[in-house]
Amino acid sequence: MTDYDQREIGAKETTFQDCFTYLCDFHRQQSWNRWLKSSSVKEHKKEKLHTMRDTRIAHADSEEHFETGVTSLNKKWRGRGQRVSPCRMFDPGAPQGW
In this predicted model, what pLDDT tens digit does every residue of 34-86 receive, in sequence order? Predict the structure, then answer.
């Protein structure tokens, strides 16, 4: 278990190739809050945080449920004209904008 530090995650996954890396729930929540405080998404912070929690991405019990939550969240944000994906920060390969 780790916080969201790509260097640490990379080192652990290189050293322990048969293990999974999990993000600490506290640090995940802290990361969401910091992201929501950023200038690009500052408006309607409480609504956005509720939407992120409502999709249950962080507590998905399978990859399928996680992907369903991400898809749902992205649809909600796109429908509101948002230009930044809330899941981009957790997926370095994700597109930088829409």
Answer: 877 776 666 667 777 777 776 677 778 888 888 888 888 777 766 665 554 55
CA distance 13 to 7: 10
Residue pair 36/53 in contact (Cβ under 8 Å)? The answer is no
Task: Name the token pair of 74.
Answer: 């992205």
Cα-based distances in Å from 60 to 65, 68, 69, 78, 95: 5, 9, 8, 22, 22
- Class of residue 15 by CB neighbours under 10 A (exposed 0-12, middle 13-18, buried 19+): exposed
H or E element in which residue 26 lies: helix 25-37
Query: What whole-number distance in Å separates Cα of residue 51 and Cα of residue 8?
Result: 29
Kindly report which listed range (1-5, 13-17, 89-93) carries the lowest average pLDDT score. Answer: 89-93
* Cα–Cα distance for residue pair 77/73, rounded to 1 Å: 6
